[in-house]
Amino acid sequence: MEGSTLRRSTELSRRLTSKGEVSVLHRLAKTILAVAVCATPLLSSVRAQEQGAASSRDEPAQLRLQRTLRSREYQGKSVEGEERVIRPRDTLWRILVQEKGLSEKRFNRYVILIGALNPRLKRPDVLQVGDILFIPLEADEILGIKVTSEKEGTRLYRVKRGDQLYKILREQLGIQGLAALRSAAEQVKRLNPDRKNWDNLVAGATIRLPGAVGSAEQAAAKQTAKQEEAPARIVGLDYGQKISVQENLDLLALVMGVLGQETSREGEELVALREGTVHIDRGSYPVIQNPKKGQRVILDLQSKITAALQSKLEGDAPGVPVVSLKKGASLHEAVTSLLSRLGFQTLPSNQPVVVQDRGVAVQVKGEWMVIPQEESGAAQPVLIISLTDLPGQTPDYLKDYLSLKGMNLKEILLPSPNSPAGGLASPSGSGAARGRFESWPADKAALVDAFLNDYGISFSNDRQFSVTLRDGIRMDTKVDRLFEYRGKKIGLSFRPLGDEVKKALEQSQGIGVTELDLKSLSSRELIAWLFAAVGESATYREQRFQANDRAAKDKLALAISGYYLPQRSLLLTDKEIPKELERFFGEKGLRVVRFQ
After folding, report:
1. Domain identity same for 135 and 161
2. Same domain, 14 and 77
3. Model confidence at 192, in pLDDT bands (50, 70, 90)?
4. Which of the residues 38, 245, 395, 545 has the least number of beta carbons within 10 Å of its own beta carbon?
5. At residue 411, does pLDDT exceed 50?
6. Is residue 181 part of a domain?
7. Phi, psi (5° rounding) for residue 510?
C-alpha cells in the first residue's frame, strides 16, 4: 500500500514539475506520505470488508439496517414510504426495478418522482453510499398509473397487528385453498428475498405482494386447489339438517362432548338381561354415556334393533334406552332425539334467546338450544350450540357476557382439509375497540349546534335583520341559527316569526327560514328534521348488527334503536349501551353518539 502511494506521489511530482509548480511539490509529497501511513490500518479494514462482500456477491443482497415508515409531501399530499440507507452496489435501478419489482418502462418517471421526494439529493439516479433515500410505498399510485398485471408491478403491504402470511394472502389477494396458499406464499417469499423470518411479522413492517391475483402461476395453483377441496359450505342454522349423521359421527361426538356426554365407537357394550348378556358392537351401534350420572344410550343408526330386543334393553333394570333412526337421518335429528332421551329440555331453534340489557337487545340462535337437568336445585344456563367453519367466530368477551346472562355459547368448528378432526372454535383475537363514544347535550339549541358541527357546517347565532313588510313598514327580527348548505341559505328560528316575516327574509335576504318549537319537539324528532334539512336519508328504527359479518344470519346479533348511517359509520341513539358491550360497537368501527 505504501509503495503504491509513493509511486503515485512520484508521478504527481513529475506532473507538477512539468507545469512549473515546484513551490508546492515538497509540501504536497510530505502530506501524501503522512496520509498513507495513517490510512494503512483503515484501508486494511476496508480491504477485508471488500473481500467479504466479494465472497457473497452470488447471494441475494440484504438490507441490514432497519427501514422505518415515514411520510413526505408530494404535490400537496402526504406520501407514505420508507427511508433506506444506501449501501455499496445499491443503484436506483436495482432498488426500484429489481428489488421493488416496478416497471422498467416507467423508470424515468420514477427517477423524477424520487427526485421530488428527495430534494437533498443532487442526482437521484447517482446514489452515494451513506445517502438516505426516501422510497414511496405506492409509486405507481402516486403517478396515477393503474397496474393491471403482475409483470408490470407489485405492491407494498403494511403489516397490521395479528397478521400472518396466510391471513394476508386470503384477505389481500382473495386466495383460498391450501395448495393455492402455498404457491402464493412461495411467490411472496421470492419477492421479499431480504426477509428470512415469516413466522413473526412485525406490525408496521412492509412486504411486497404480487400486483395482480390472476397470474398464470396462481391460476394454476387455484385450479389445483379446486380439485383438492370439498365443495364450499354455507353454515347456516339448519346445517345439521342437511348432513347425514352416519357420515358425520365425529361431528356427533363433538356435539355430545359439549353436552358432557361421551361417545364410544370401539369395542363392545355389555348389557345384562334376564336371558343373558348381550354384546353390542359399538362400531355399528355407538353408545352415548354420561359417566357422572351413569346414563347410557344406544344409537341405532339404521333401525336394525328389533322392537322386541329394544323392549328388553329398555325394560330390564337398569334400562338402556335405544334411539332408532332411519337410514339417511340427519345429524340434527340424531342430536335432537338423543337430547330428549338424556333428559335435556330443548328450546325451539327458530326463536332466538333474547337478553334485554338497558338499551341493547342481545339475540342468540343456535342449531340446538337446550336446558340441562337441574343439579342440586340450581338453575342451569341455556346451552346454545352452533356449527361453524370460522375459527373464533364469536369473541371471547361476548361469550363471557352471555355467560353472565345465563347463556353458555359453544361453537363447534366443522372438519376441514386443514383440520380434519374439527373441534371447538378457537378464541378470536383481543383487539382494542376502534370506535368512539360521544354524548350530545340535552339542551335542544345546543343539540342543533352539535349536529351542524358534526357535519362541518359553519353557522352564526342570533343574526339580526331589518326587513320591509310593506311600504312604510319595517321590522327588526332575528334568526337564531343561520348557515349555508349546498348553495342555499337556511335560517332556523326557535320562536314563531309568521309567514309574512319569513317571506320577507326569503325575498330580501334569500334565506329560507324554518320555525322549530324546541319545547314541543323531542330530540328524536329534532334530529330527524335536521337530517332532512341536510338531505340525509336516515330513519329511527331498530338497527341490527351481526357479531360476525361472515356468519349465518341471526346466529348472534345485537339490536339497538337509533339512526344508523353506514356511509359515515355513525350510530345515533338515545338508548344506553352497557359498558360490557361498548367494545362490540367499537370493533365494528362505529362512532356511537348518544342523545337524550
Report:
1. no
2. no
3. confident
4. 38
5. yes
6. yes
7. 70, 30
